[in-house]
Amino acid sequence: MVAPDEAALSAVDHGITVGDGVFETCAVLGGHAFALTRHLARLERSAAGMGMADLDLHKVRGGVDAVLAAAPDAGRLRITVTDGVGPLGSGRSAGPQTVIVAATPAVVVPTGRAARSPWTRNENSAVAGLKTTSYAENVVALADATAKGGDESVFANTRGELCEGTGSNVFIEIGGELVTPPLSVGCLAGITRELLLEWGAEAGLPVREAKDGELPFSVLDQVAAGEARMLLTGSVRNVQPTAWLDGVDLKVGELSSAARDLFERNMRERIDP
Ligand SMILES: Cc1ncc(COP(=O)(O)O)c(C=O)c1O
User: Fold this and answer.
1) Atom of ligand 1 nearest to the CA of 131
2) Residue that terminates a domain, selected from 104, 132, 163
3) Which one in 101, 186, 187, 262 has a CA-CA gap of 20 to 30 Å to 212?
4) How far apart are CA 20 and CA 13, in angstroms?
């Protein structure tokens, strides 16, 4: 256990020098990490996609238990696994991986403010759909949204399709349905997205994945014009209707707020769905 300002990592850890690592962020409710099993499964998928060696999930779970026991006010948990001490360039050595678990308090905000990103997500990238520690693109895009008065930046992909936010998936409320881009757009397979699709189907809420090409980025013009509504999903953010897009105030959609209520009810009852 170390304080945030205490050294705990090699200065030449490959996660630091080149962003060679994977991570997860989970909400914490009453001292328990929400949907931890799904998050650990995705951590393994991201590591496999990166070509990293198999993860020691026993060690990761031990870290999670120890950190949560020491942080009773935690609302957000972060698990990072890097390739460990490595060379100064992109090549890898076969050293032991680094496992870091950290927690902080968190505030859940009921509605969000989105800005369209001037940059695109590359659905053809070697790391598309993987949750890697190479998050500089997201840092820059989120700073752009923040400067415009938003709290999330939403990307198109290179084909002009609606993709995702820097740390969220997007759903559009249109034609009496909530529709989210398919994973083929290059977005992360969000756990909150996946649970909203599952729980929505279970509760009879009209929520589904879009067909290829069904949600162009220009659907956000319809959102800005009040012809469609929007919500973002992500760990800690949960299911969050969007109340502002690029300077335009938006109404919260009926389905969007029903989806938020459903998610918040279920997440309290099912800590590791
Ligand atoms: C790029 C990106 N998309 C989507 C999400 C939402 O995923 P989840 O619901 O699993 O938090 C995240 C999570 O932070 C993310 O980093």
Assistant:
1) 16
2) 104
3) 262
4) 9
CATH number of the domain bearing residue 139:
3.20.10.10
Measured from the CB, is residue 14 less than 6 Å from ligand 1?
no
**What are the tens digits of pLDDT across the range 202-216?**
999 999 999 999 999
Task: Provide the residue range defining the domain that includes 230.
Answer: 112-269
What is the pTM (predicted TM-score) of this model?
0.97
Residue bearing the CA closest to ligand 1, atom 12: 167
| Helix spans in the chain (H) | 14-17, 36-50, 57-70, 136-147, 191-203, 219-224, 254-269
Whether pLDDT at 4 is above 90 = no
Instruction: Tell me the CATH number at 77.
Output: 3.30.470.10
Q: Is 117 in the pocket of ligand 1 (CB under 6 A)?
A: no
Backbone φ, ψ for residue 147 (5° rounding): -65, -25
- In percent, the amount of the chain with pLDDT more than 70 equals 100
Q: Which of 76, 104, 132 is the last residue of a domain?
A: 104
Structural tokens at position 130 = 């993987």
Tell me: do 95 and 53 sit in the same domain.
yes
Same domain, 99 and 147: no
